[in-house]
Write the structure tokens for this entry.
Amino acid sequence: MELRPIEKWMEQNLGVTRLPLKGGSQVTYYHDALTMVGSGLGHFSVHIIHGKARDHRHIRRRDFRHFLHKRLMEIIAILEDQGR
């Protein structure tokens, strides 16, 4: 799965911020709502797969289901509870 459209949706609809970290094969995101659950730090990450061109970042469907989807659903539930 290409990561860019997912990132765009997360930023526009949920207010998720991508943290500026140096390269590597992991992307880290932050949302205030996640400070209420889990470790309380508010950040979550996903492993990326670099294609031949560095600007085409992809993630495995398994990683989306196990990492991103879980956190996105937590953010949506918290925002609904807060009435946003």
Remarks:
- The CA atoms of residues 8 and 16 lie 9 Å apart.
- The two ends are 29 Å apart (CA to CA).
- The beta strands are 17-18, 26-30, 43-47, 49-50, 57-58.
